[in-house]
Amino acid sequence: MGDYRFDNRFHRFPVFSIQRIEPTGDTMIADILVKGCNELHTLSGGKEPRAGKEMRDTGCIKKGALVVKNGEILDIGKSERIEKEYDAAETIDASGKTVVPGFVDPHTHLVFSGSREDELVMKIKGKTYMEILKAGGGILRTVRKTRAASKDELKNEMKKRMDVMLAHGTTTAEAKSGYGLDLENEMKSLEVIREIDHPLELVPTYMGAHALPPEFEDHSEYIDYCCTTVLPAVADIAEFCDVFCEKGVFDADDSMQLLIKAAELGLGIKVHADEIENIGCSTMAAELGAVSCEHLVKSSSKDLKAMAKNGVIGILLPGTPFMLMDNHYSPAREMIESGMAVALATDLNPNCWTESMLMIITLACLQMKMLPEEALTAATFNAARAIGREDIGSIEPGKKADFLILDIPNLMHLPYHFGVNLVDKVFKEGHLQ
Ligand code: NIG
Ligand code: FE
Questions:
Q1: Mean pLDDT, residues 229-237
Q2: Which ligand 1 atom is nearest residue 139's CA?
Q3: CA–centroid distance, residue 301 to ligand 2 (Å)
Q4: How far is the CA of 173 from the centre of ligand 2 (A)?
Q5: Fewer beta carbons within 10 Å, N or C terminal of the chain?
Q6: Is the pLDDT of residue 20 over 80?
Q7: pLDDT over 90 at 6, yes or no
Q8: Closest residue to atom 11 of ligand 1, CA basis
Q9: Residue 112 has pLDDT above 70, yes or no
Q10: CA angle, 192 as apex, 390 and 227 as ends, to 5°?
C-alpha cells in the first residue's frame, strides 16, 4: 500500500499569481464597487488549504469594500480608501451586511433522476440505509431511473437543483456521476455535467464504483470493468475519481485498484471513507495521496493523523447523518485539532437532498461544534482546494469575482439565523445573478 503515492493535488491547474493593481493617482474606473460592508470576509492570503487553527482566520475587514473589473476582483480594503481610489459603473452599498466568497460545494451527486421520499418514511419507521440498499432500494433504485432518463431529462432535473444552489449562494460545485454505473450511462452522466448551460460552474468526478450494478455479481469483476473499460473512456471528461469504500460495497483493496488506475490516467483521487463502518479506507486513501476523503464519521485518531500528515482534506457532510437520523457526526473538532484541513459539502443526493450550504453550515456548527469562522473557511477556501481550484474561494485581487452579500450584520449570524435564505445577492464572475 505504502509504495504508491500520487501527488495529484492541483493537477492540471496553473499556479495562480496575485497582483495588486496600483492606482495611478486619478480614480480608477471599475465595473462594480461594493462599499461599506459591515464585515468583508476575504479569506485572502496563501494557497494551501487552511488546516488546524488557520481555519479561524477569515481575513475579515470591518467596514470593507471590494472592486470588480472584467469578472475579477481588482482590489479590496477599507471602504474609506477604496471609495477614494475607485469609481465604478455600479456601486452597491452593503452597510449592515456581511460579504463572503461564493460558497463552493465540493461534494454533490447532482446527476440523478427521480426522488426517494418514501425511503425517508421507511427510515423514520426504523429501517437502516444499508437494509434499504440491500433490498434493491437506495442507490440502485436511483440507478434504474437515471439509466432510463435522456440527457435532456437529466439536464432539466439538474437545472432546477442548480437554480436553488445558486440562489442559496453556491457559485461552484463538484458533481459526481455514479447512478449510471455502466459505460454508456456513466458517460451520459459526465457529459451532462460538462454540457449543461448554467452560471453555476461544475467540476466533474467519475464515481462508477458507487454500487455493484445488477449485471455484475462480483465486486472485483466490476472494478476490473471500471478500470479497463470505463476509466480510460471518461478520463478526459472527469477531473477526479471517487469510490464508495464501505463494508458491503467496495473494500479497501478494490478501491485501491481503481484509484491507482485513475491516478495513472491523471485523475485526482477522492474517497467516500469511514461513513458507516471503518474498514481502513481513509488511511488507504491518505497513503495513495488522495486530494480528499469524504464523510469520515467513523474515522479513528490514527486515520486522522494519517490524513493530516498527507495533506488530505476532510470533506464533512453533516446533512447525511442528519437525514439518517443518526446522532454520530464526523469528529470535526478532533480533525481540526490534529491539524487537518476540513471542508464542508451538501452531499446533495436522493438520500440527502439539500442544495443549501447555509443549512450545512448550521449543522456543522451545532452538531460538530465548528466555529462560524471555521465553517466559512470550510465552505469556501478549503472547499475550492478540495476540487483543485485556486482561482475561487477567496476575495482577493486576481481571483474570480464570485461573492455573496449576506443580509446579516456579522458572521455569527451564519449558523444562528437558520432555515431561511440569508443570501441577499450572488455574484458569479462579477455578474449579479
Ligand atoms: O455519499 N454513500 C454513498 N453515496 C451517497 C448516497 C447516495 C444515495 O443514497 O443515493 C452519499 O451519501
Ligand atoms: Fe456522497
A1: 97
A2: 10
A3: 22
A4: 13
A5: N
A6: no
A7: no
A8: 347
A9: yes
A10: 80
| Residue predicted with more confidence, 20 or 37 | 37
Q: Model pTM?
A: 0.94
Q: How confident is the model at residue 133 (pLDDT cuts 50, 70, 90)?
A: confident
Q: How far is the CA of 176 from the centre of ligand 2 (A)?
A: 8
Task: Answer whether 146 contacts ligand 1 (Cβ < 6 A).
Answer: no
Mean pLDDT of 67-85: 97
Domain positions in the chain:
28-101+395-432, 104-386
Nearest CA to ligand 1 atom 3: 244
The class that CATH gives domain 104-386 is alpha beta
Q: Predicted confidence band at 23 (pLDDT cuts at 50, 70, 90)? A: low
Distance 336 CA to ligand 1 centre (A): 25
CA of 114, nearest ligand number: 1
For ligand 1, mutation pick of 110, 130, 134, 139 (most atoms within 8 Å of CB): 139
- How many Å lie between the centroid of ligand 2 and the Cα of residue 108? 6
Closest ligand by atom to 137 CA: 1
Q: Quick one: which atom of ligand 1 is closest to the CA of 133?
A: 9
More confident: 16 or 292: 292
Closest atom of ligand 1 to 138 CA is: 9
- 170 has a pLDDT exceeding 50: yes
Look at 9-23, 181-195, 361-375 and tell me which has the smallest mean pLDDT.
Answer: 9-23
- Give the CATH superfamily of 28-101+395-432: Urease, subunit C, domain 1 (2.30.40.10)
